[in-house]
């Protein structure tokens, strides 16, 4: 084969060989040669966004819901800088993205040319790796390598910056090498001894807990299956981080709910009092641990993670197992069956007191709230949304803030890859474009963005994308007219100084929906809520649902600042008690 | 800010800092030093000194030697984070007190003054393999190789002999004996 291809063609040849079916992008001067070739590669569909940040989050939504890498195509300068937020978001939450950016021609690099920026310099700290391709002969191997780096080990974003002259130059095309070797960086570094040690710890423990995270999801659906098997085989309680929701059924009795800052009373207390903590694919984030010095003081800690740098980063652990969750879990199950097939029976007695204690914490019912007949409580809205959609295998994205925490608390997930939320970076404006990406990957499924009115306005322009591609996403806005989480912190922690957290001139979301040529629905009372939600679900077009909720509702329970897991503030009732004694204030 | 109520946590731990020498073998490609240095600045690690040059022309491998300080946990993180970088081949780590490893820095001193002072300066450097690289009637350029603290000391001591300019490298390291870094 001596056929020569242009750089632009090679970009698509590589994508074909990497089984890319959708790319999210926005054209511009420095990528025009690539856009010229788009029409010649029919298997690759381009989704035109309205802002490059939207392309990034859409690719994230696509990746998280499908398990495949998300692909982005942007131009130089502002095109590249606009995508930085999404790359950083993906880096924090370990989402595989491949971003192709155009660059000014090589001879103009460094001259402050039009729409030039140091893209590889700017994105270096927010990608796993990035490349500036200065030689056409390196292009194909670089793009293949980019896909490999993005998807292997702990996944993450990568960027390939391609100068415009390279896009025109011609060379031979080379297919990806089959052998996957990452600079000698393999991912499973554990041996049977560690597995034996884990099983030994498990059989000795009388107060165990599984603490699972996004690593289970990233390891693929099989990992979630194995996790369920292990949790049922041991009878241990399990809690999950925000990112791990869905890897274990949210309505199962062994599931204690989410842990952390807005986690349940039972999950956090169990984390604090346990004698064995088995962390599977989570990273001891500060929103999870609370005060680190008093984090789970009496427990032996096991940490299963694919990234060696996650071990002992925030919390020192007693047993580290570096490897892919799926591989580690399958080894553990195998050994457990061989050595201790009656584990559940022998262990039930041992953990019965522990379960009694957990039931006591559960009886506090920390997610309860005071209902209302006049105004829609945001928690109630999520509960109703869940009840009316739970049989539909729905995909939920969120923005960032109170609505996100309420969604995590009250929407029960039973399958992995159904929950897309910005955890690490906490990017407001994530959910709407993410929903676009999810719907692209799953055209027939119900996709809902549970949103706040402040967040959603940050990327509202992507409604136009949804309309263009007939993506019937549902934007379910819990509209309290405040940046709710900011308002909550100001109320509880900054002497009710509500500085700039109220949005005085919100758009009329129903009219906004009409302006975008999609459907607007508004619910004002609890009484009409169900009917309106059903109306939304029966609409086969994009919908903006303006759910007018209680303006001053706070998200509880909450671990206040600088406090350990066992000093949570519960709902409004608990707070009133504390206000009377004056002790509550010092608690916050 | 100890009274702030909304900070999620405060660090009040005072741990002992150790000095470590980290040696990193990397592909000598564009931006690789920026990746390594950016990792340090981005994650708040210290760099006391840095020395870098290509050591294998054929394989295009550069060897970076970084002197850093940190708690054991931080030093461990530095190693693990460095190993994650795609162009990094291997990472070695030594405590400064490690007897099995040689550390050396080089310094150039320019002395300006009368002959008697120039001679005095050369004499003062005697312990550190002084090499007279340049000599005029009024000036000397002296090269020494020594440990960091020794060069620190010489930089002070030579002032009285008319030291006008100092240029020095970061530390480089090599194991003693027949062993090499694995």
Write the layout of secondary structure elements.
The complex is a heterodimer of chains A (588) and B (182).
Chain A lengths: L4 E2 H11 L4 E4 L6 H6 L7 E4 L3 H15 L3 E5 L3 H5 L1 H10 L3 E7 L15 H5 L5 E4 L6 H13 L5 E7 H5 L1 E2 L20 H13 L3 E5 L1 H5 L2 H14 L3 E3 L14 E4 L6 H9 L2 E5 L5 H4 L10 E6 L13 E4 L2 H15 L3 H20 L15 H12 L5 E4 L3 H9 L8 E2 L10 H11 L5 E6 H4 L6 H6 L5 E6 L4 H10 L15 H7 L3 E5 L2 H12 L5 E6 L23 H10 L1 H5 L1
Parallel strand pairs in A: 2-3, 2-4, 4-5, 5-7, 6-7, 9-10, 9-12, 10-11, 12-13, 13-14, 15-16, 15-17, 17-18, 18-20, 19-20
Antiparallel strand pairs in A: 1-8
Chain B lengths: L17 E10 L4 H11 L6 E8 L4 E10 L1 H13 L3 E8 L5 E12 L2 H10 L6 E5 L3 E8 L1 H10 L5 E6 L3 E4 L7
Antiparallel strand pairs in B: 1-3, 1-4, 2-3, 5-7, 5-8, 5-9, 6-7
Instruction: State the helical fraction of chain A.
Output: 40-55%
Radius of gyration of chain A: 25 Å
Outline of chain B: globular
Determine the number of helices of chain B (DSSP H or I, runs of at least 4 residues): 4
**Number of helices, where a helix is a run of at least 4 consecutive DSSP H or I residues of chain A:** 25
Q: Give unreliable regions of chain A as ranges.
A: 577-588
- How is the biggest beta sheet of chain A arranged? 6 strands, parallel
Give the strand line-up of the largest sheet of chain A: 3-2-4-5-7-6
Overall 3D geometry of chain A?
A: globular
Major beta sheet summary of chain B: 5 strands, antiparallel
Coarse structural class of chain B? alpha+beta
**pLDDT below 50 for ≥5 consecutive residues: which ranges of chain B?**
none
| Strand percentage of chain B | 35-45%
Residues in β-strands, percent of chain A: 15-25%
SSE ordering of chain B: EHEEHEEHEEHEE
Class from helix and strand fractions of chain A: alpha/beta
Largest interface: A-B, 32 and 25 residues
The total strand number of chain A stands at 20
